[in-house]
Amino acid sequence: MDIDAYLKRIHYTDEVNTTLTTLRKLHCQHQLSIPIENLSIHYGQEIILDPESLFDKIITRKRGGFCYELNGLFFELLQAIGFQVKRVSGRVHDDVNGFHPEFDHLSIIAHVDGIDWLVDVAFGRHFPVYPLLLTRNQIQEDRTGRYQITELDADNLVIKQQNEQGDWIPGYSFTCIPRDLTDFAEMCHFHQTSKESFFTRNKLCTIVTPRGRITLTDHTLKITENGQVVDHVIADQLEFEDFLLDCFGIKMTRPALH
């Protein structure tokens, strides 16, 4: 792991140590610098879950990725710095199917000064800019919203976000069992290839900004700033790729596969 190259990629210039302050700053800078995106799936590029391949894609070639890639590589950075971390399996929730299968999502638990924190730089607008204290039924808040972690059952916890109506909406359930990166390979393949996967249906690139978020899909560019949202309808593939370059610095030139 080339720590210096990683820190340069996320524009991190502060002290590097294993304190909570550093973890919080790394978490924030990662989201401000590296987008969540599924472009490889739509441009015929296989996603390979090994640290060297992930580093080449995300750090050297300045791309983004989805949870297996971003949290998978962020785990490697935190471990290289000296943090006590473990990968954990999450099961994303939706209103139609409930909780998805095991290994549907990869997130991280960091143990800092005797306290556990849920770390996730790849769950988009449904996770805060900073890690969540891994404690039950405590409301935690930042500029992105209000969150809490509750018990789902005897073995699983669930992260919830409060919506505008005041209801607590499940994001994903998770256990605290440590996992290997290879444990996620089967579900990573599913999300690259299955028509049932959210990621095969629509191109997505989204990143946190200092005052909001920018999200680009096949059909819309959405810019959120200080709570105000501006939508722009995408005319065609060429305009999509122009915005991809202008807003995210990513150049994709091969025709999308359908």
User: What is the domain total for the residues?
Assistant: 2
Gap between N and C termini, in Å?
Answer: 35 Å
Q: Could you give the order of the helices and strands? A: HHEHHHEEEEEEEEEHEEEEH
- Overall average pLDDT: 95
Rg (CA only): 18 Å
What's the CATH class of the largest domain, please?
A: Alpha Beta
Indicate the overall shape.
Answer: globular
| Beta-strand fraction estimate | 25-35%
Fraction of residues in helix:
25-40%
Total number of beta strands? 14
Question: The biggest beta sheet, please?
Answer: 9 strands, antiparallel
CATH topology assignment of the largest domain: Arylamine N-acetyltransferase fold
Based on the coordinates given, report the CATH architecture of the largest domain.
2-Layer Sandwich
Low-confidence stretches: none
- What is the chains' assembly state? single chain
The helix tally amounts to 7
Q: Structural class of the secondary elements?
A: alpha+beta
Pfam family, one: Acetyltransf_2
Keywords: Transferase
GO molecular function: acetyltransferase activity
Family: Belongs to the arylamine N-acetyltransferase family.
Describe the protein in words.
28% of the residues lie in helices and 30% in strands. With 258 residues, the chain is α+β, with helices and mostly antiparallel strands. It has two domains: 3-193, Arylamine N-acetyltransferase fold, CATH 3.30.2140.20; 198-248, no CATH class. Strands 2, 3, 4, 5, 6, 7, 8, 9 and 10 form a nine-stranded antiparallel beta sheet that branches. The model has no long low-confidence stretch (mean pLDDT 95).
